[in-house]
Amino acid sequence: QVQLVESGGGLVQAGGSLRLSCAASGRSISYYAMGWFRQAPGKDREFVAAIGRPSIYYIDSVKGRFTITRDNAKNMVYLQMSSLKPEDTAVYYCAADANLSRFRTNFNLQDKYDYWGQGTQVTVSS
Fold first, then answer.
1. 3-state DSSP of 49-95
2. How far apart are CA 19 and CA 15, in angstroms?
3. From the first residue on, what is the mean pLDDT of each consecutive set of 10 residues in the chain (126 residues)?
4. d(CA 41, CA 123)
5. Is the Cβ–Cβ distance between 25 and 96 less than 8 Å?
6. Three-state DSSP class for 27?
7. Which DSSP category does 110 fall into?
8. CA distances to 73, 100, 101, 104 from 119, in Å
9. C-beta of residue 115 within 8 angstroms of C-beta of residue 3
10. Is 66 in contact with 57 (CB distance < 8 Å)?
11. What is the pLDDT of residue 12?
C-alpha cells in the first residue's frame, strides 16, 4: 500500500506561483508512474501532469506554466505552478500507478492509478 499526502495549496493572485508537494509513504515510489489531477467546482476531475522514468506529460492548458518533478530519494513528487490563472482553481490530487510499463498509454487515465491522496485546494483570485 502507498499513502499519498498533498500539501502546498492555498490562495494566490492571478500571475502568482505555488508549489504543490506529494509525500508518499508505505513503499518506494521510485518505479511508480506519478500523476497530478484536479477537480474544479462543478466539473469532472481532469488530468494535469504525469511523470514516469523519464517521460513527462502535461495537459495543454498548463504547458509552459507547470512543471512536474520527482525526488525518488525523498519519495516525493512536486508540481511547480507559475503564471496561475483563475481557471486553475481546483482541488489538486496526487496519484500513483504501480505499473510504470504502461505509462505511455495510461498516463492521463484516472482509473489506471492505484493510489490517491486526499487533495489540496488551490484558489487563484483575479
1. EEECCCCEEECHHHCCCEEEEEECCCCEEEEEECCCCHHHCEEEEEE
2. 14
3. 97 98 97 97 97 96 98 98 98 96 94 97 97
4. 11
5. no
6. coil
7. G
8. 23, 22, 26, 24
9. yes
10. no
11. 98
Tally the residues of the chain.
126
Residue type at 14 in one-letter notation: A
Residue 60, pLDDT score: 98
Residue bearing cell 499513502: 3
Q: Strand 18-25 and strand 66-71: pairing?
A: unpaired
Query: Measured between alpha carbons, how far is 53 from 32 in angstroms, rounded to an integer?
Result: 9
Strands 46-51 and 33-39, by their bridges, are antiparallel
